[in-house]
Design goal:
The chain is an alpha/beta fold. The chain is built from 7 helices and 8 strands, in the order ααααββββαβαβββα. Strands 1-8-7-4-5-6 form a 6-stranded mixed beta sheet.
């Protein structure tokens, strides 16, 4: 009998120790969960603060750009655009400040261009500067740390002749993906034409791949109307979309003479700028040294 009671007592003590350990484990788990929730809340708070600062910086940049364009359109110089920019961007953007900014922008947009009143019957009257004001393109590239081999493709040109990308090796290429319905693409086209003519007769070529799904005739009419003379291919089925990562238009790649992608650009660029000429001239010198 004493042995039975001793064994029963040992079992009870072990059970009590297990219950105590379980309770301590639960307390530890609750403490860890509380610390995790607190850490996550603090992290989310910091992320929201960073996002708010980014939004404020973007809003400030947009207001400054708008003021500069308004001043440029109306040929206004001096203290007015500077004061307006300080008013719109200085300090926190309160509701009152936002309403004033919207009101000023609306008034400036609906006002006619400064100058003597023109005869309504005169069709030669120049339009408001806001209608002719165009975005000034800039040139910038994303240079790849390591040149990567370009995917190959075979696409028809506007006359139906199949052109293979690998057959153009030995030339420096600007490979541009575009569409006739894309306003930035259309805006970029004249600078690509100037670039093509700048290096004409040298181992260089502009290859513009249209991804229009409506057929080649629309592309042919667009190219003829714009008097573009560089090589235009048509990818109606968008077979190049995945290999070249075409998620938005326009997108361009610069290929060296070995068929490797050395740089890329997203969005419309000024390919007729001195910076673009100098960059491509450097690649062409490497071709001549081979």
């Amino acid at each position: 009998m004493p042995d039975i009671f001793a064994n029963a007592g040992g079992v009870i003590v072990s059970y009590l120790e297990w219950v105590q350990n379980l309770q301590e484990f639960r307390w530890t788990e609750e403490s860890i969960n509380h610390q995790l929730r607190r850490t996550m809340e603090e992290s989310f708070h910091e992320i929201n603060e960073i996002a708010d600062r980014k939004k404020a910086d973007m809003r400030t940049a947009c207001y400054r750009l708008a003021v500069n364009r308004i001043a440029e359109a109306f040929n206004v110089r001096g203290i007015f655009p500077q004061s307006l920019a300080r008013f719109l961007t200085g300090g926190a953007m309160s509701r009152k400040r936002s309403l004033w900014a919207a009101l000023i922008a609306w008034v400036l947009l609906v006002l006619p261009a400064p100058g003597p009143a023109a005869d309504k019957k005169n069709r030669d009257t120049p339009p408001s500067p806001f209608r002719v004001l165009k975005r000034r393109l800039k040139f910038s590239l994303v240079h790849f740390p390591k040149a990567r081999p370009s995917p190959d493709f075979s696409l028809p040109d506007l006359e139906g002749k199949i052109v293979r990308l690998f057959d153009l090796r030995g030339k420096v290429l600007v490979l541009n993906f575009w569409a006739t319905w894309c306003p930035p693409c259309v805006e970029e086209m004249p600078s690509l034409e100037k670039l093509h003519r700048q290096f004409q007769g040298r181992p260089f070529e502009v290859v513009a791949v249209s991804v229009d799904a409506e057929g080649v005739e629309k592309v042919r009419v667009f190219v003829k109307k714009g008097k573009f003379t560089f090589r235009v291919l048509h990818d109606r089925k968008k077979t190049t979309e995945y290999p070249f990562g075409v998620r938005g238009l326009p997108i361009s790649y610069v290929l060296d003479s070995k068929g490797r992608m050395v740089a890329g650009a997203i969005g419309a660029k000024d390919w007729a700028s001195k910076k673009a000429y100098a960059y491509l001239e450097g690649l062409l010198k490497n071709v001549s040294n081979l």
